[in-house]
Structure to design on (115 residues):
């Protein structure tokens, strides 16, 4: 029997937010990076109830794609970035809105590293 008395605390569902993450990846067989590249930087927009969840989901998805995440730098939510003085163009805002609507990770840009 389920207890539905008014004294039973209900778990509040925390809202999803989108976080801007910069992920550095190394080389891995089948990673799809250009020949001669030593790794890459990926600008990602990831949804999560907090930044830690967004990072975990992003790393998991990149590993499934045969990438080798080495380091993740978080830049916060749109609101946090604006408060820090970042200029956020409409194209970025659209990708963030898509990540939120789809509850997904979007890789917006990949910059390969070469020696």
């Amino acid at each position: 029997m389920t207890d539905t008395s008014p004294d039973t605390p209900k778990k509040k569902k925390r809202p999803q937010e989108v976080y801007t993450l910069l992920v550095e990846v190394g080389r891995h067989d089948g990673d799809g990076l250009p020949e001669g590249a030593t790794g890459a930087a990926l600008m990602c927009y990831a949804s999560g109830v907090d930044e830690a969840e967004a990072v975990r989901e992003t790393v998991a998805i990149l590993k499934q794609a045969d990438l080798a995440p080495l380091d993740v730098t978080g830049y916060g939510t749109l609101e946090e970035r604006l408060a820090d003085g970042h200029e956020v163009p409409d194209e970025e805002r659209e990708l963030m809105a898509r990540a939120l609507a789809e509850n997904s990770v979007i890789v917006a840009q990949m910059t390969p590293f070469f020696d």
User: Anything to note?
Assistant: The chain has three helices and four strands. Strands lie at 17-26, 37-48, 68-76, 105-114. The two ends are 64 Å apart (CA to CA).
